[in-house]
Specification:
Length: 249
């Protein structure tokens, strides 16, 4: 143990040395932007703010991630909800990709079927494609009714596709195209939004936000897993021979 000061001057020297060391430590802490709980005395408020703002983006992200990790480690209920939401999101993303692939394959087939229907259609002398509907009327691809005189010029074989077959092909294409558009939109507006929220290191989602996200994800997954359906009624005539011609008086 060192010798104790014997005079008032010695005691004063020890005191000032302790103050000097504390001042030096406080200054170093202020320069480093460290919070110590002590009154900041050396730098101006602007200088202290500049030092704190000088932290790199990586340091700020690390601090935010630490907060997320702390929440997941210390709040079991939140962690379970967060993990379940993330699991549902991954399942929904996979379901969306499967649904898109299935719809795109179906769309390609529907387009081939429509082309085959058009290629097999009856034609007027000028080359216009026409079909006979279930009432026996002859129609163009635009739905216009062909006059009796023009219809009389057609030689029907019975194998031509009926108008309802053409409408079904076209409707299937429109339906599949709309489904693809909706899935792609949901990937961005629902799944993409959910992933941004869950990955946000600066703003942790509340329990209510996670519950809402999970509900939206579940509804999206349900839509992705829906079966594709054709839009042509099974009892609709498929070819000209299936059409019952109207009785003539």
């Amino acid at each position: 143990m060192g010798e104790l000061p014997e005079t008032a001057l010695d005691l004063q020297a020890v005191f000032f040395e302790a103050v000097r060391r504390q001042d030096f430590d406080d200054l170093q802490n202020e320069l480093a932007g460290r919070e110590t709980g002590r009154l900041e005395r050396f730098l101006s408020p602007d200088e202290r703010e500049r030092i704190r703002d000088g932290k790199s983006k990586g340091e700020r992200q690390a601090e935010a991630m630490t907060r997320l990790q702390w929440m997941l480690a210390n709040n079991a209920e939140y962690a379970a909800l967060y993990d379940d939401t993330f699991d549902k999101l991954r399942e929904a993303e996979q379901a969306a990709e499967r649904a898109l692939e299935k719809a795109r394959l179906a769309l390609a087939k529907a387009e081939r079927d429509l082309q085959a229907t058009l290629d097999s259609a009856a034609r007027l002398p000028d080359g216009t494609r026409v079909f006979r509907d279930e009432q026996g009327r002859v129609r163009t691809v635009h739905g216009a009714t062909v006059s009796d005189l023009d219809a009389a010029s057609i030689e029907w074989s019975g194998d031509e596709p009926a108008y309802e077959q053409f409408l079904g092909n076209r409707s299937t294409i429109e339906s599949l195209g709309g489904r693809i558009d909706k899935i792609e939109r949901m990937q961005v507006e629902v799944l993409g939004h959910a992933r941004n929220v869950l990955d946000d290191e600066d703003n942790l989602a509340s329990t209510e936000e996670l519950e809402n996200l999970r509900q939206q994800i579940d509804e999206s997954t349900e839509y992705f897993n829906q079966d594709l359906v054709t839009t042509t009624p099974s009892d609709a005539p498929q070819r000209t021979a299936d059409v019952q011609l109207p009785m003539l008086n």
